[in-house]
Amino acid sequence: TQYFLDRIEAGKQWNAYLDVNAHLSLEQAFKADKLISAGKAGKLTGIPVAHKDVFVTRGWKSTAASKILAGYQSPFDATVVSNLGIPDENNPHGAGMVCLGKTNMDEFAMGSSNENSAYGPVLNPWNAAYVAGGSSGGSAAAVAAGLAPIATGTDTGGSIRQPAAFCGLTGIKPSYGRVSRYGMIAYASSLDQAGPMGKSAEDCALVLSAMSSHDQRDSTSLADSGEDYGRYLNQSWQEASTNPTKPLEGLRIGLPKEFFADGLASDVAKSVNEAAKTLEGLGAKLVEVSLPKTKLSIPVYYVLAPAEASSNLSRFDGVRYGHRASEYKDLGDMYQKSRTEGFGAEVRRRILIGTYVLCHGYYDAYYLQAQKIRRIIAADFQAAFKECDVILGPVAPDVAWRLGEKSKDPVQMYLEDIYTLSTNLAGLPAMSAPCGFNANNLPIGMQLIGNYFSEARLLQVAHQYQ
Ligand code: GLN
């Protein structure tokens, strides 16, 4: 813990952390030490972890990188935080990990480059002129720069997978409902899902197993979420397989033709195709599949996510949480001023879009249509999974871009999410794993998508590849 705290102190230039409290971290480390000496250690006891600032934590500030929550201290821990944290009488099943602090992110997880944080952008540790990706950019940069061994993230439309890809990491967004959303500051509740970001599929499997659990405090939490996601890591795809050089024999990998079409950078296409060949060499069979509505995932997501956000963010009214304007005429004026001052430009844009599509008269034309297409997108995946076990494609159309390059044009930024949004709309598990570098030495990520509850299988494929 001290080692990482020193690294964090020396690595401030990445702007990866929003709140660090060495005293609290060391206090947890001492408790973990005691557990280890008492022979009560689990696999993760004493290992430090950084939490995205979207998870509320006792002791550390929780702001979701927004000015409206500046200085906010939560009286309780998010379930993700307590599941991973030091066990005590109120939290008997805590995994014993030590919290290193809270990582920077796009404000309320809205963004794809971590330039929407009220506390400044995160820089990519591979090249400081480039973005780290978003919205979990702080978690990605922290792990990539060696300021944490592993970190938590959330993924509403790609926010674990894309920054992991941009920073050369492995990250997994599990099936919707696997990880409790209790204490996770809500963006779009029907899409939000938490997961780990680390250096390998093995690390992610360990941490995901500790993160996920059934939670009565989240009505969408699955009844049987507790499982060992690492159980297949060192096994062959088929239990009966006898060829040790072909561990993936029997696995059908689907390459969606819409993921390799116009708009995909040629160096990214090349790396992902090479990864496909490597997996083929391990015994997998490559098949072409189709996800015909891929392009529609952008308009559908950017109607539904803002709609849910506009409702979720109504709780930030200047009364209950965070920032309140210092001068106002009456209650309405106080709400308006507090929210205008507290929310950043992208958050305000989404609240406006969301409120608009939910308005009487527009609801049928936008929100309802989007919900219908969401269903079709989910059905397309089920059709593809008749022909393959796992889908492989790029995480994003390109590698990390230069800071400022896309921040003037929100639509440009939204288009970058094309390969990640549809899995959230369908609720499917998906992960990102590094598969190469471009000519500028920027990391390239590949994406593996599985059917519901196949996380352990996705991690197996990534582990065999790694
Ligand atoms: N880039 C997407 C957005 O801005 C996804 C963000 C996320 O997954 N939290 O909404």
From TrEMBL:
<keyword id="KW-0648">Protein biosynthesis</keyword>
<keyword id="KW-0547">Nucleotide-binding</keyword>
<feature type="active site" description="Charge relay system">
    <location>
        <position position="52"/>
    </location>
</feature>
<protein>
    <recommendedName>
        <fullName>Glutamyl-tRNA(Gln) amidotransferase subunit A</fullName>
        <ecNumber>6.3.5.7</ecNumber>
    </recommendedName>
</protein>
<dbReference type="GO" id="GO:0030956">
    <property type="term" value="C:glutamyl-tRNA(Gln) amidotransferase complex"/>
</dbReference>
<comment type="similarity">
    <text>Belongs to the amidase family. GatA subfamily.</text>
</comment>
<feature type="active site" description="Charge relay system">
    <location>
        <position position="135"/>
    </location>
</feature>
<dbReference type="GO" id="GO:0006412">
    <property type="term" value="P:translation"/>
</dbReference>
<keyword id="KW-0436">Ligase</keyword>
<keyword id="KW-0808">Transferase</keyword>
<dbReference type="GO" id="GO:0016740">
    <property type="term" value="F:transferase activity"/>
</dbReference>
<dbReference type="InterPro" id="IPR023631">
    <property type="entry name" value="Amidase_dom"/>
</dbReference>
<dbReference type="InterPro" id="IPR004412">
    <property type="entry name" value="GatA"/>
</dbReference>
<dbReference type="InterPro" id="IPR020556">
    <property type="entry name" value="Amidase_CS"/>
</dbReference>
<dbReference type="GO" id="GO:0050567">
    <property type="term" value="F:glutaminyl-tRNA synthase (glutamine-hydrolyzing) activity"/>
</dbReference>
<dbReference type="Pfam" id="PF01425">
    <property type="entry name" value="Amidase"/>
</dbReference>
<keyword id="KW-0067">ATP-binding</keyword>
<comment type="function">
    <text>Allows the formation of correctly charged Gln-tRNA(Gln) through the transamidation of misacylated Glu-tRNA(Gln) in organisms which lack glutaminyl-tRNA synthetase. The reaction takes place in the presence of glutamine and ATP through an activated gamma-phospho-Glu-tRNA(Gln).</text>
</comment>
<comment type="subunit">
    <text>Heterotrimer of A, B and C subunits.</text>
</comment>
<dbReference type="GO" id="GO:0005524">
    <property type="term" value="F:ATP binding"/>
</dbReference>
<dbReference type="InterPro" id="IPR000120">
    <property type="entry name" value="Amidase"/>
</dbReference>
<feature type="domain" description="Amidase">
    <location>
        <begin position="1"/>
        <end position="459"/>
    </location>
</feature>
<feature type="active site" description="Acyl-ester intermediate">
    <location>
        <position position="159"/>
    </location>
</feature>
<dbReference type="InterPro" id="IPR036928">
    <property type="entry name" value="AS_sf"/>
</dbReference>
